[in-house]
Write a structure and sequence with these properties.
The complex is a heterodimer of chains A (505) and B (93). Chain A is of the alpha+beta class and 505 residues long. Helix content of chain A is 62%, strand content 8%. Classes of the chains: A alpha+beta (505), B mainly alpha (93).
């Protein structure tokens, strides 16, 4: 037998690395891309929250301090999220006796805000690394291995492509298998820096926090949670929070401490603060910087909560640590303003479409050969084809169902947040079932039509169930609502186009 | 606004570069000369560099480079769509 050439071997690796966990990767890319607008989706999913105006940071802090001193004077921990452009409310939480209480305040009127219970955009964002229903130890490994496969697929893809520069900008329409390959290539090439960055940095999250690092840390620091915390506090260059002493002491006023942090970082650069053991002599105040620049998201300053003395400053402890943080910040894109955030979102959509076209190309390339050779359906091909339909078209339907559930489940239903997610996965299951029961051509067309309707009618649903519809949000320039509704319209139109194409094939 | 200017430059640059490529040369009505192609390549590259300049001006190197990369992605996608569109139109006539 002739030995296969190098490129042929690499091509095989690319095919299988991309296929085996391709559907997991598709899920990760869809939910992760939504995650770039997590706060905006949160906002859309709690439409009863009032339109809030920005207030000065010191006014918001004063309000938070009053509220927390009154409600939970001796909590284990207070957390204060200061309002910003994307999240206009003042977010407080405190941990007392093993229970955490969350509260949102209007920073202008100081009113406590009540809104429907929802998983919000945050749940979608969390799904991209935690999946759902699975214990985190399991899901972490699944997503970690899938990310590794993705990196292999990207590197081998670049080697296999051969004609990156000759074929640049080339997309030949209406040429069957060739068109799928062109689309896959072009989606990969135009956003290649993003694909590489997002996959490599995604892998860093895993190796860092979950997979390899715990073993290395256990070797040097000893096993167990307590030793892990020592390692983390040394890594971050700030003292561990420790335990309360039991001796009462009044908490220092917070405003001067935040002012010191602002003097270091600049105005409005404080994002949040944590106060540990308030009312105890060992109280600590940790102030977090806003992630306005690359590599700064984990910067903190720590103060003694009684004397107000600076205990630890904003130190970047080592070069590898700094490099890691630049990569993790690139992944999260928290520093991005509106324009750059949209570019992140676009790149995420392109990555999602790259995975989808790769999966579809696998079937387009093999259908003729596998079916004509045997004169009967081929099991592997049928399986991939059905999974493709139920995932590539079915998952967008499921996510749209999550948004529909947000509006249609009763507002006072106690388990509504959990059921929003249940609805999503039930609908996904139904789509997979539908794909298994119908011929591929019909299933593709029908599911794309359902996806088009499910997304395209969301602005109508929003108009029927809330008073924050496009007729209000557009004139007011309320971009969380208008942007969400219009984006869903665009997806609806794109899916309708896909449906007409699938039906015509 | 600054982003729109950078996107326009990157789009122009990529369009010029695509017109100088062998693969897309038939978009011309008649064959382009070597010197025209060289001008397109030089001008196209220059436009991409100018877009980089616009990006790093107000945002600094770190975020400017990220922004430039994203803008190149969007611009390249536009050029892909416009070339595919030109093919569809020319097939119809």
């Amino acid at each position: 037998m002739r030995q296969p050439g190098f490129r042929q071997v690499v091509s095989e690796v690319h095919t299988w690395a991309g296929l085996v966990l391709g559907w997991v990767l598709f899920f990760v890319f869809v939910t992760g891309t939504a995650g770039y607008f997590t706060h905006e989706i949160d906002r859309w999913m709690q439409p009863e929250l009032p339109v809030m105006r920005q207030v000065a940071a010191d006014r918001a802090l004063e309000l938070a301090e009053q509220h927390l001193r009154r409600e939970a004077p001796t909590a284990q921990r207070w957390s204060v999220g200061l309002p910003d452009d994307r999240r206009p409310s003042l977010r407080l939480s405190w941990r007392e006796g093993g229970r955490t209480t969350h509260r949102q305040l209007d920073p202008e009127s100081a009113r406590i805000l009540h809104a429907r219970d929802t998983g919000g955009g945050d749940l979608l964002y969390e799904m991209h690394y935690k999946l759902h229903y699975l214990p985190s130890a399991v899901s972490t490994w699944i997503v970690g291995v899938a990310t590794m496969f993705m990196l292999v697929a990207i590197v081998t893809g670049v080697i296999v492509h051969r004609k990156i520069f000759i074929d640049f900008f080339t997309f030949r329409i209406g040429r069957g298998q060739r068109s799928w390959l062109d689309a896959h290539n072009i989606l990969a090439v135009v956003a290649l820096p993003f694909h590489l960055m997002i996959t490599y940095s995604g892998l860093l999250f895993y190796s860092f926090a979950y997979t390899l690092m715990p073993f290395i840390v256990a070797l040097h620091y000893g096993a167990g949670d307590a030793n892990w915390r020592v390692y983390v506090s040394e890594l971050r260059g700030r003292p561990a929070e420790g335990r309360p002493s039991g001796t009462a002491a009044p908490l220092a006023p917070l405003a001067p401490l935040v002012a010191q942090a602002e003097a270091l970082w600049g105005e409005r650069q404080v994002q949040s603060l944590n106060v540990f053991h308030s009312g105890d002599v060992r109280a600590r105040v940790v102030i977090h910087k806003r992630a306005a620049t690359l590599g700064s998201s984990e910067q903190t300053v720590t103060f003694d909560g009684v004397s107000g003395a600076l205990l630890a400053g904003p130190a970047v402890s080592s070069t590898p640590y700094a490099v890691t943080h630049v990569l993790l910040d690139l992944h999260e894109g928290l520093f991005a303003d509106a324009a750059l955030r949209w570019l992140y979102f676009l790149s995420g959509v392109l990555g999602t479409a790259m995975i989808a076209t790769g999966l579809v190309h696998w079937t387009a390339k093999r259908r003729q050969r596998l079916e004509s050779a045997r004169g009967m359906p081929h099991f592997g091909l049928a399986l991939v084809e059905r999974l493709n339909i139920g995932t590539v078209a079915g998952l967008p339907i499921a996510i749209a169902a999550y948004f529909w559930a947000n509006r249609l489940l009763p507002v006072d239903f106690s388990a509504r947040a959990a059921w929003e997610a249940h609805v999503m996965f039930i609908v996904w299951g139904l789509m997979l079932l539908h794909a298994a029961l119908h011929s591929p051509r019909r299933a593709w067309a029908q599911q794309w039509w359902v996806a088009a309707a499910a997304c395209g009618f969301i602005p109508v649903l929003n108009a029927l169930t809330t008073d924050r519809h496009l007729g209000v949000s557009l004139p007011e320039g309320d971009w969380a609502f208008a942007g969400f509704d219009l984006t869903m319209c665009v997806f609806g139109i794109a899916f309708a186009y896909a449906a007409t194409k699938a039906a015509a094939r | 606004m600054m982003e729109a200017a950078a996107l326009a430059l990157a789009w122009g640059g990529f369009t010029a570069l695509s017109l100088a490529m062998r693969r897309h040369r038939h978009l011309w009505r008649r064959a382009s000369s070597r010197s025209v192609r060289n001008i397109l390549r030089a001008g196209g590259s220059l436009a991409l560099v100018a877009a980089l300049g616009i990006c790093i001006g107000p945002s600094g190197w770190s975020i400017g480079l990220v922004l430039w990369t994203g803008i190149l992605t969007a611009a390249a996608l536009l050029v892909v769509v416009q070339i595919a569109g030109a093919h569809v139109l020319s097939r119809r006539t």
